[in-house]
Write a structure and sequence with these properties.
The complex is a heterodimer of chains A (about 230) and B (about 325).
Chain A lengths: L22 H12 L2 H4 L3 E3 L8 H23 L3 H4 L1 H30 L8 H23 L4 H16 L11 H30 L14 H8 L2
Chain B lengths: L10 H4 L5 E3 L2 H23 L9 H7 L1 H13 L26 H5 L7 H13 L4 H12 L2 H15 L3 E3 L2 E3 L8 H13 L2 H5 L12 H9 L2 H8 L23 H6 L11 H17 L10 H4 L3 H4 L1 H8 L7
Antiparallel strand pairs in B: 2-3
The chains are: A mainly alpha (about 230), B mainly alpha (about 325).
């Protein structure tokens, strides 16, 4: 590829050649090395991925998509809509049941990864981000229950305030403040959970699925073997 | 031994010798999206979602005026649960929890100040004063009296409310030395019945309101809201936090959190909330750090559920297949 010389410096513009330097080139190079598209969207997997346990992860992701889409619809129409409109009540039903399914599938996914010891071979970070997603999802759902504007929301707020206040966080996280709970539920927490899920999925794709327990360790490259053993 | 920098992407090495098969991730996600969509739509169409209308102070005052007046009298006396609560609402100590050297609730201090006698009773009555000379006089008499005199009236009236009845819509008690308190409470009951108190407790000088701390604290001090919750099986002794109104599933993922409240020593502790939260923080930390905790991370090896997960793999290994050919 022919590159026109930079008019000011008389050199080729950065971001093109293999010997690029600078932060942008460094980040781009790192992303290209660590996240090549063929690994993010692979077309071949180890044959043991055929197990049913791998379905829980993808179906959790699918349920989350419906949670977000139904939640966005509810937030666009406003917090009163589903109390007074038949259509709104139906969309709230979609939100309610997709949340229930999301948690069921997520817990099954978590148990599947626990019993398969999915944190092995450098995957501890993937496990930890997954646990954080689980905890963040519970807080997100909790704020949703507080933002329902009905008897259940009132009763949860009156009782939950004691637990939150006992930790000192009640000073900053007021479960009886509908505005605060609604804002957290429709904005910050869903964005946080979604970002964490994206990181989690990238982590999974980055490392690939873990070997079955008891499977022989990965074969090493000749150069690594040589470096370790000196022969 | 010379250490060699780890290669960033080593999946090829990781899977070397393992048979690879075609796998369509995007198609799998599309099928999952379709399947969950069908499931969610069917559930929503068939079962809808729970929505039991919220309780209001107006409804409380109309349904159970004696309970409302009793709670309001306790607010005015500063003897209600919320009036003696402590941080973040006031400097009381009635609901302040601590454990060992940990006093996080006290450390956080008062951040949402609520003055129950004034915010819940006197200020709303002040707004009803115009056009009501007897209320103006009663308020002046009460606020002008000494603290001991006020306490005497309130104590006497509180005791009398234990045997009160409702006559012609008014709370009737035996004769006694209550000062202006019965008139104050009668007027407050009137404001509450009209729905005015629901709005007055939200007012803080701004047109738009979203903070329901005051009305919820007031309603929490009465027994009307808790009675409705009891009817819906939402109370703590019935695993309330994870329940939902009607027959709908609630936050079932809180089962472990709710479990602790049902058993000793938590169910008898005045610091139960803090203790349960600490236990759950510990449990979540353990779950987070499973990969690094010997013993905990070995459980999957000891209990061979993985033999079910990778049943086909182990069967092929036993048969001598599985390696890439």
């Amino acid at each position: 590829m022919t590159v026109p010389p930079d008019e000011a410096s008389g050199t080729a513009p950065s971001g093109v050649d293999a010997d690029d330097s600078g932060w942008t080139a460094a980040i781009r190079g790192r992303l290209e090395r660590r996240l090549p598209l063929r690994e993010l969207l692979p077309t071949r997997q180890p044959y043991y991925v055929g197990s049913w346990v791998y379905v829980f992860g993808v179906i959790t992701l699918a349920a989350l998509v419906w949670v977000v889409l139904s939640g966005v619809t509810l937030s666009v129409e406003g917090p009163q809509w589903w109390h007074v409109s038949r259509e709104g009540r139906f969309v709230n039903g979609l939100h309610f049941w997709s949340v229930q399914l999301f948690f069921i599938f997520m817990v099954l996914h978590l148990w599947g990864q626990f019993w398969g010891a999915g944190w092995r071979d450098g995957r501890a970070g993937t496990w930890m981000v997954g646990v954080v997603i689980f905890a963040a999802s519970i807080v997100t759902a909790f704020t949703g229950y507080l933002a329902q504007q009905n008897l259940d929301a009132q009763w949860i707020a009156v009782n939950a305030k004691d637990a939150v206040n006992s930790t000192g966080f009640g000073a900053f996280f007021d479960v009886t403040n509908f505005g605060q709970m609604y804002g957290l539920h429709v904005m910050l927490l869903p964005i946080g959970v979604t970002l964490l899920v994206v990181i989690h999925v990238v982590q999974v794709r980055l490392r690939g699925v873990v070997r079955p327990l008891g499977a022989p360790p990965p074969e090493e490259d000749d150069d690594v073997t040589a470096a370790k053993g000196g022969h | 031994m010379r250490l060699q920098r780890k290669r960033p992407v080593d999946r090829e090495r990781y899977y070397r010798g393992v048979r690879m098969v075609p796998y369509d991730l995007v198609k799998e996600l599309a099928i999952a999206l379709g399947a969950t969509a069908i499931l969610v739509v069917v559930l929503a169409a068939a079962l809808s979602s729970p929505d039991v209308p919220s309780d209001t102070i107006q409804r409380w005052a109309q349904d159970d005026p004696v309970d409302f007046v009793t709670a309001a009298t306790n607010e005015l006396a500063g003897s209600s649960t919320s009036a003696q609560y402590g941080p973040p609402y006031n400097n009381g100590s009635g609901s302040v929890q601590s454990w060992w050297v940990l006093h996080p609730q006290a450390w956080a201090g008062v951040h949402q100040p609520v003055d129950q006698p004034n915010d819940f009773v006197l200020a709303p009555l002040q707004s009803a004063v115009p056009g009501d000379a007897s209320l103006r006089t009663a308020l002046a008499t009460f606020t002008g009296a000494s603290g001991d005199r006020q306490s005497g009236w309130l104590d006497n009236y509180t005791k009398a409310l234990g045997k009160a009845s409702v006559k012609s819509g008014e709370v009737a008690t035996a004769e006694g030395d209550y000062g202006p308190v019965p008139l104050l409470m009668s007027r407050l009951l009137g404001v509450a019945r009209s729905g005015g108190l629901d709005g007055l407790l939200l007012t803080n000088g701004n047109f738009y309101q979203t903070d329901y701390t005051k009305p919820l604290l007031f309603m929490g001090d009465g027994s009307h809201l808790s009675g409705l919750a009891q009817d819906q099986k939402l109370t703590g002794n019935l695993w309330g936090m994870m329940n939902e109104t009607g027959r709908y599933p609630g936050q079932s993922w809180l089962w472990l959190y709710t479990l602790w409240y049902q058993i000793a020593p938590f169910n008898a502790s005045s610091n139960a909330d803090l203790l349960v939260v600490l236990v759950m923080v510990g449990a979540t930390t353990l779950l987070l750090l499973v990969p690094f905790i010997p013993g905990l991370r070995d459980i999957p090896r000891w209990i061979p559920i993985h033999r079910l997960i990778w049943r086909r793999y182990y069967a092929e290994q036993a048969a001598g297949r599985g390696a890439r050919t």
